[in-house]
């Protein structure tokens, strides 16, 4: 249920995520009338800004991100904004923030949301201070942005500290992929239809591919990214979450703990990889210079080189990962999951491809033409859609001439509504206190448990990632990874 009153506090209020994602999402919620009437938005950062200067900064960001602003809406949103300059070490700064939070009517029934859009090392210290100030009583909620730690140990440590201050039901760990319309639609496709689920197993499915390809490079975020790499930045969270939604058993109901319970079982069933398997079944890449969307872009090496201090990079950070994973349970035994993600690739596309088995027996021994296995292609972004590849007879006399055809569902033409951005949906879920599309503590830790030994092995072996030209499909070894199994990456667009 939407509360009547809300104080939405964003730590890192002048940062990239706030200006590019959170405030535009709040703008759209305002436009649609989804924000509780009595809502304040408090940006917290180290910058010396008064409320008006912060409003001007946010206004510029909205103009850039949203474009054509509705004047009334932006005026209403900007009027809600406040800014508090805060140095985490400074008690006086914290007292300013406590003061502002307490300075409102009906303070007891106000839902306080603390969005921590800052480095994970600050999660613990910020929560402690909020606890010290008596600011964490329910209905307060805290939102933790990814990355949740750097590895299993740091994730556990963060979860433990945050857990001392907030109850698990107050903690919302964001993976914005779960807020994407197309990702939620995956649940509906699987569980609100009867057509697919009977085939959704190792009897009928040969393998599954999940690709999240980006054309962007690391850009301004090199300072963060260089200590992360694609495995931590994308695979540990977004790709494994997509895998969970594809592979999980039907939940009893969405909207309770069931979805998270079922995802958790998939994570637990992921086969841990041995050193030999890591070397054989995972390809790491790092982009070199090259043309992307008609423009020559710099190599990752050059981008890292620009950061004058603090880089720990020794040529080991990967910007691309392709891997073959296994889900060890009754449904999926023997069905490989091929995952890949990379920056500076030839196209921006996130897609899931379910490749079905060949018919068990060929009743057209004299056929001509071309056949291909049935394939369900789920386009997550940019253009949401679904395509089912079938085989048909080409009209004409002279026997069976076969040809692949496809059934197409394009969401933009099937639905006329605007597709809300992932953050819009998720922020309103936090305000309402609905945790279904957020990661539970055990899920985050299970994902790190699988990823940790892989990264550790890379660190120990010290082998550099393979270079790939920006604007390409990644290192050629990523193609070999799947082709040596007699399969190939399927791209529709
Ligand atoms: C973020 C990663 O979580 O997801 C970024 O940190 C990445 O590196 C982004 O670019 C991709 O999100 P989207 O929604 O653009 O696919």
From TrEMBL:
InterPro entries: G6P_DH, G6P_DH_AS, G6P_DH_C, G6P_DH_NAD-bd, NAD(P)-bd_dom_sf. It holds the Pfam family G6PD_N. Residues 10-185 form the Glucose-6-phosphate dehydrogenase NAD-binding domain. Residues 187-490 form the Glucose-6-phosphate dehydrogenase C-terminal domain. NADP(+) binds at residues 87-88, 146. Its EC number is 1.1.1.49. SUPFAM superfamilies: Glyceraldehyde-3-phosphate dehydrogenase-like, C-terminal domain, NAD(P)-binding Rossmann-fold domains. Belongs to the glucose-6-phosphate dehydrogenase family. This is Glucose-6-phosphate 1-dehydrogenase. It comes from Nocardioides terrae. The gene is zwf.
């Amino acid at each position: 249920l939407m509360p009547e009153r809300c104080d939405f506090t964003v730590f890192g209020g002048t940062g990239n995520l706030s200006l590019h994602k959170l405030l535009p999402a709040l703008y759209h919620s305002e436009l649609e009338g989804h924000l509780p009437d009595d809502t304040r938005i408090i940006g917290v950062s180290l910058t010396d800004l008064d409320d008006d200067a912060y409003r001007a900064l946010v206004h510029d960001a909205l103009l850039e991100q949203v474009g054509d602003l509705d004047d009334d809406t932006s005026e209403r949103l900007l009027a809600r904004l406040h800014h508090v300059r805060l140095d985490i070490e400074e008690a006086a700064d914290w007292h300013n923030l406590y003061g502002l939070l307490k300075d409102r009517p009906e303070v007891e029934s106000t839902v306080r949301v603390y969005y921590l859009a800052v480095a994970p090392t600050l999660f613990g210290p910020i929560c402690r201070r909020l606890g010290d100030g008596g600011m964490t009583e329910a209905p307060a909620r805290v939102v933790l942005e990814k990355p949740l730690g750097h590895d299993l140990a740091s994730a556990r440590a963060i979860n433990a500290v945050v857990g001392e201050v907030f109850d698990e039901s107050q903690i919302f760990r964001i993976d914005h992929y779960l807020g994407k319309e197309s990702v939620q639609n995956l649940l509906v496709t699987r569980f609100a239809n009867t057509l697919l689920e009977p085939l959704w197993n190792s009897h009928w499915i040969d393998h599954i591919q999940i690709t999240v390809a980006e054309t962007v490079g690391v850009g301004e975020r090199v300072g963060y990214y260089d200590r992360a790499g694609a495995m931590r930045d994308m695979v540990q969270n977004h790709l494994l979450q997509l895998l969970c939604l594809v592979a999980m058993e039907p939940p009893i109901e969405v909207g309770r703990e069931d979805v998270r319970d079922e995802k958790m079982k998939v994570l637990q069933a992921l086969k841990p990889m041995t050193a030999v398997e890591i070397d054989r079944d995972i390809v790491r890449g790092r982009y070199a210079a090259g043309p992307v969307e008609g423009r020559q872009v710099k190599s990752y090496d050059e981008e890292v080189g620009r950061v004058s201090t603090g880089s720990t990079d020794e040529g080991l950070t990967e910007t691309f990962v392709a891997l073959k994973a296994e889900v060890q349970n009754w449904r999926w035994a023997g069905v490989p999951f091929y995952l890949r993600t990379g920056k500076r690739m030839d196209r921006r596309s996130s897609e899931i491809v379910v490749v079905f088995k060949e018919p068990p027996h060929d009743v057209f021994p004299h056929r001509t033409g071309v056949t291909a296995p049935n394939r369900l292609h789920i386009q997550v972004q940019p253009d949401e859609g679904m395509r089912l590849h079938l085989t048909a007879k080409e009209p004409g006399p002279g026997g069976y001439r076969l040809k692949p055809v496809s059934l197409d569902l394009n969401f933009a033409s099937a639905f006329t509504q605007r597709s809300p951005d992932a953050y819009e949906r998720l922020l309103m879920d936090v305000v309402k206190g609905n945790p279904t599309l957020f990661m539970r503590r055990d899920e985050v830790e299970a994902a790190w448990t699988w990823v940790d030994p892989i990264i550790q092995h890379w660190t120990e072996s010290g082998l550099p990632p393979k270079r790939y030209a920006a604007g390409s499909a990644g290192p050629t070894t990523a193609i070999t990874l799947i082709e040596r199994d007699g399969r190939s990456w399927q791209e529709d667009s």
